[in-house]
Structure formats: C-alpha cells, structure tokens
Design goal:
Layout (H helix, E strand, L loop, with lengths): L5 H29 L4 H23 L10 H21 L4 H23 L4 H22 L5 H4 L4 H16 L4 H21 L13
Helix pairs in contact: 1-2, 1-3, 1-4, 2-3, 2-4, 2-5, 4-5, 4-7, 4-8, 5-7, 7-8
Length: 212
C-alpha cells in the first residue's frame, strides 16, 4: 500500500479542493453569464457548482462539509467571479478555455473525493462512487439552477470519466505506485477521456421509447 505522511495528504487534499473549487466556480459563473444572470446570481451559481458535489459527499460520509471548515472556498468563488468580470471577454476568444475549466474541476474533485473517502477507511468501491459524486454532482446542480437538462444525463462522457479515473487510481494504489504518479495518472485519465469524448462526439447509448 501507499504510505504517505498524513500531514502531506491533508495539505494535498486542501490544494486539490481549492483548485477544483476555482475551476468549477469559473464554469458555473460562465454558464450563469450566458443566461444573463447578475453578479450575485453568477456568484451563487458558481458557489453551488463548486461546493455541491463535495457537500453531498461529506454529508454521506458523515463529516462537516469541506467548505465550512475554512472561508477560503467562499473567497475562492469571489476571486473566480472577479476573474470572469475582468478577463471573461479575453477567455471567450480562446474557444475551448471554458470547457477546459469544467474538465479540470471534474478531474480534481474526483481525486479529492477518492482521497477523502479512503482516508476515512472506506473500501475502494465506495471511494470511486464518492469521487464520481464529488466531481459530477456540482454540474447537475448547475444545470438545475440554470433550468437546463443536466449534461450528465443526456450527452457527453462525464461521470463515466470519473469512474475510469477512479479505477486507474485504484489500480496504481494497489500496485504501490508513488502518490504523485497515482494522482497525476487519475487526473490525466479523466481529462483525456473527457476531451476525446467531446472531440469525437462519443456518448453512451440513448434510451428510447423502444426500450419500454
């Protein structure tokens, strides 16, 4: 098994959750801007996306939601809103930049969910589920707030990318790989699958009335 200093794991967990919060907040605020929400509405949407999945995870694990342990996540979302206000037009010219933020948040929070679940002594199959919830549930909350059909349910490979990343984490964990390699490999797996799925329009089979 991977043996790592608990203090290092705690710091790594906080760094990953902070980066994931910023990336997902950017994603939520950007979608709110597309719907012409005001600054407050954009902040609420960004914050809900950023903390939604992790909150559901922590409630299910029976611990205090991560964002309630430090004000930095609230401030991080405010910084994301300021970033959009100042640089949003420039980022729009970069085309896939917004999609990249959404994907980075998905991959980072997936890892955060896996690590936190394992640190509490739960088996890996639960860790993979919690990683998926942490990464994907925020996007569902975002789409509900914006009155859209959640992306996770009808197009693109989203939650399944988290599952794949979780299995990579699991494999390298039991192969006793260094933690850095394990985290980076899981992160890249989620990102690559997501990028390829969107680029080549890969999605899961669609249910139709013929199936009922």
């Amino acid at each position: 098994m991977i043996t790592t200093d608990p203090e290092f794991l705690k710091i790594l967990q906080e760094v990953i959750e902070f980066l994931g919060t910023f990336a997902f907040a950017i994603s939520g605020i950007r979608h709110a801007a597309a719907k012409h929400y005001d600054w407050f509405g954009g902040y609420v949407c960004g914050f809900a996306v950023a903390i939604g999945g992790g909150t559901i995870r922590d409630v299910m694990l029976g611990v205090i939601p991560f964002w309630m342990t430090s004000p930095m996540y609230v401030l991080c979302t405010a910084f994301a809103l300021l970033f959009i206000i100042l640089f949003g037009r420039f980022m729009k010219r970069l085309g896939n930049a917004w999609f990249a933020f959404d994907t980075l948040g998905l991959a980072l929070f997936n890892i955060a969910g896996i690590q936190k679940t394992l640190s509490m002594g739960h088996p890996f199959w639960i860790a993979i589920i919690m990683g998926c919830i942490t990464g994907a549930a925020g996007g569902v909350i975002r789409d509900v707030l914006l009155n859209n059909i959640p992306v996770i349910f009808h197009k693109e490979i989203y939650a399944m990318a988290c599952v794949a990343g979780g299995f990579v984490y699991w494999l390298l964990y039991y192969l006793d790989a260094p933690l850095t390699i394990t985290v980076v490999s899981s992160f890249l797996t989620v990102c690559i699958i997501r990028f390829l799925a969107v680029k080549y329009h890969i999605s899961l089979p669609i249910l139709s009335s013929n199936h009922i």
